[in-house]
Each structure stands twice: as C-alpha cells, then as structure tokens.
C-alpha cells in the first residue's frame, strides 16, 4: 500500500509539474491533482499551488499513512499542447481506464516529448504574427515585409539568448532591442514606411499572452497569490520589452 | 474589401500566435476563427459608435464565450482557445506609444496613453470575468450566511 501511495504521489506531482511549467491555470492544476488522488482512493486530499511550486498531501486511509510532498518549478514556458495531453491522461485515469503505472508512464512520455512544432516553424510563424499585427495596428501592405523580418529576428534572438541567460527578463530585453534595431535599420534603408507599426509588429511575438490571461483567471477563481505573482511576471516582461525597444529608439533615432 | 483583408490577416496572425503557444494542431483553425469573431465584434461596435474601451470589453466577452463553448465541445482546456481569441485585442500599439512618449520626455502624453492602455487591458479582463460568470452559472459556492456543517 505504501508503494502505491508513493507512486500515486509521484504521478500526481509529475502531472502538476508539467502543467505548471507549460502554463496551465492554477485552478486547473489543483483540481486535476485532487481529482486524480481521489480517484485512486486516497482520503483527505489537499493541493496548493503557486506560480513556482506545488504542494500535495493525502492519506491512505482516514487518519492513517499521511503523505505530503512538494515540487519546485523553476522554468515557466508556454506549450498548451502538453497541458491538453495531461488533461487527457487525468480524464482517462479518473474514468478508470488507466492504472497508476500506465498513467505515470504516459506522463513521463509527455514530459520528455519535444515541443509540438519544430523551432524553425515557430520562428517563421512569429514573423507571420508580427507582420499581421503590424497591419492590424495601421501599417500598410508594404510594411508586412520589414515587420516579418524584424519579428523573426526578435523571435530567433529570444530563443537563442534564453539558452545563455539565467535572467529571463534580460533575454526578453535583448530580444526587444534586436527586433527594434532590425526594424529601424530596415526603414532606414528604405524598406517600409510606417516605423511605429513595424516596431510594434516586431514586438508582438514577445507579448506575454499566456501569463496575462492566466493571471486574470487565477485572480478570479480565488487563487490570489498565484494570480498576483503571474500578473507581476507579465508586467515585468512587458517592462523588459518596453525598455529594450526604448533603448533601440534612443540609440538609433 | 478592406475589412475582408483585415479578417484574413487576423486569422493568419491568430493562427501564427497559436503556433507560438504550441496550441494543438486541430485547435489552430478554431482559435483563428475565434480571433476573427473578436475582430468583427470590435470593429462593428466601434463602427456603431462605441468607445474603444467598451468595444474591447464586448469583443473580449464574446471571444471568451465562444472559446468556452468550443473548448467544451472539443474537450480542450479553455486557454488553448481563449488566449488566441483575445490576442487581437492586446493594446500593443498603445503600449508602444506610451513608451515612445516617455522616451521623448512627453510625460503628460505618456500618462494619457498609459491610462488608455491599462483601461483596455482592464476591459479584456472584464470581458473574461463576465464570460466566466455566465458560463459557470449554477455552480455557485452556496449561500453567504449558511452555517458550516
């Protein structure tokens, strides 16, 4: 029985770690973990999650065999596909279609699986997103080309720099600086008319969409601590982007 | 014609953002369509004279409701659809002009743009709040003065 509880604890925390790392809302993490532990027959299940860690505790029987563990999450990325996969595993597990070890195996596969799309595809589509938004924010059709190039430059430098820098906001700052610089240079050599819209487009791939939406959702569902910290994270990212592009503008214009 | 082009570009940009966030493949087109709904609601309500902030709130509300309906039907986490759905509303351009005004030393203008940026962000959040209250209607937490058993 103790082994079973141990494996259940590992399974639950692995599911929670994947979801927290790749950008799930706090209520979803807590609910998933609690449901899985209850479905496995444990009593007095409690889960508490913040933006940087998850606590889970349960008992094998009422008043016997207490277990409590936590997991610390350092990296926060965005991969909504993995959240969907974990959601699916937890649904099948609570429905009784999976055993604990099967669920654990599938979660490990999800944990080690590569990103849904290859990195170069992500870069190319960062360009599409950037140039599209530069048009929507009032740029012309001719501005699509420089905005595309600048957005790809920003996306590439963000991904590459993140491998070297420990402070995430520094790499976002540098990526925004690169995107802004490329946009300014392209307009200087005559490619593109509306500098403002091109710069905005080049920065759009850096916008912290996932933490921002999750912050609102967390605050609403009463996870005040997680919501505040996620909101601050999104705010810091926006400030890093703003100061990166501000530096580029004050240097080159 | 201009509006049709805008819709196509919105679709492309929203799908591209879905790829940045690694949205599952079969949800990409749905997310893009929700982005188009958002843009249509935003532009239509501004066309009929709504203030940008009110229009943003309305668009965010409709995007979140549509996202919730489809997420339930496709058995997906709501965020995979709602995040691409509200992206066309992100006040990127106003945030940029806020920054630009501060860099150039026009603090008053910067504050003006900054307040507008924050109000629009608040309107997006407000739309999400309303949609959540509508879609979870009937799952209340119980009466405020109920004694705890």
Provide a short characterization of the protein structure.
Chain B: Pfam families: ThrE_2. Chain B: One of its GO terms (biological process) is succinate transport. Chain A has about 250 residues and is mainly α.
Task: Describe the protein's architecture and organization.
The complex is a heterodimer of chains A (253) and B (149). Chain A has 2 domains: 2-112, Pantoate--beta-alanine Ligase, Chain: A,domain 2, CATH 3.30.1300; 119-252, no CATH class. A 3-stranded antiparallel β-sheet of chain A has the order 1-2-3, covered by helices on one side. Chain A contains 10 helices and 3 strands, in the order H-H-E-E-E-H-H-H-H-H-H-H-H. Chain A has helices at residues 2-21, 26-39, 80-94, 100-112, 119-136, 144-162, 168-188, 195-203, 209-220, 224-252, and strands at residues 43-49, 53-61, 64-72. Chain B has 149 residues and is mostly helical. Chain B is built from 6 helices and no strands. In chain B, helix 2 (25-47) runs antiparallel to helix 3. The longest helix of chain B is centred in the C-terminal third of the chain and has 29 residues, at 107-135. Chains A and B meet through helix 3, helix 5, helix 8, helix 9 and helix 10 of A and helix 1, helix 2, helix 4, helix 5 and helix 6 of B.
């Amino acid at each position: 029985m103790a082994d079973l509880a141990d494996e259940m604890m590992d399974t639950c925390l692995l599911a929670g770690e994947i979801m927290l790392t790749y950008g799930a809302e706090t209520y979803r993490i807590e609910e998933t973990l609690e449901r899985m532990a209850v479905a496995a027959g444990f009593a007095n299940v409690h889960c508490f999650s913040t933006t940087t860690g998850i606590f889970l505790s349960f008992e094998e029987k009422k008043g016997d065999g207490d277990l409590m563990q936590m997991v610390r999450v350092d990296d926060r990325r965005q991969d909504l596909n993995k959240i969907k996969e974990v959601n699916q595993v937890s649904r099948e597990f609570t429905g009784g279609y999976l055993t604990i070890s099967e669920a654990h195996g599938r979660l490990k596969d999800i944990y080690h699986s590569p990103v849904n799309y290859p990195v170069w595809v992500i870069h190319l589509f960062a360009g599409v997103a950037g140039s599209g938004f530069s048009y929507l924010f009032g740029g012309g059709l001719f501005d699509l080309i420089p905005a595309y190039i600048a957005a790809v430059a920003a996306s590439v430098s963000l991904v590459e720099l993140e491998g070297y820098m420990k402070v995430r906001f520094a790499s976002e700052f540098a990526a925004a600086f690169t995107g802004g610089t490329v946009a300014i240079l392209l307009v200087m050599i005559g490619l593109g008319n509306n500098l403002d819209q091109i710069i905005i487009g080049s920065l759009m791939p850096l916008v912290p969409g996932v933490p921002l939406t999750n912050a609102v959702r967390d605050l609403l569902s009463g996870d005040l601590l997680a919501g505040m910290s996620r909101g601050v994270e999104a705010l810091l990212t926006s400030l890093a982007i703003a100061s990166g592009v501000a530096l580029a503008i004050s240097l080159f214009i | 014609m201009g509006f049709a082009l805008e819709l196509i570009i919105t679709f492309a940009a929203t799908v591209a953002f879905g790829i940045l966030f690694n949205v599952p493949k079969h949800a990409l087109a749905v997310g893009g369509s929700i982005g188009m709904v958002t843009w249509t609601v935003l532009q239509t309500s501004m066309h009929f004279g709504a203030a940008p902030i009110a229009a943003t709130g309305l668009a965010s509300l409709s995007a979140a409701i549509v996202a919730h309906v489809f997420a339930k039907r496709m058995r997906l986490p709501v965020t995979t659809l709602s995040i691409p759905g509200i992206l066309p509303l992100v006040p990127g351009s106003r945030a940029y002009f806020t920054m630009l005004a501060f860099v150039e030393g026009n603090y008053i203008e910067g504050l003006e743009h900054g307040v507008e940026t924050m109000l629009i962000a608040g309107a997006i959040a407000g739309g999400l709040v309303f949609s959540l209250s509508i879609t979870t209607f009937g799952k209340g937490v119980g009466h405020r003065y109920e004694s705890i058993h």
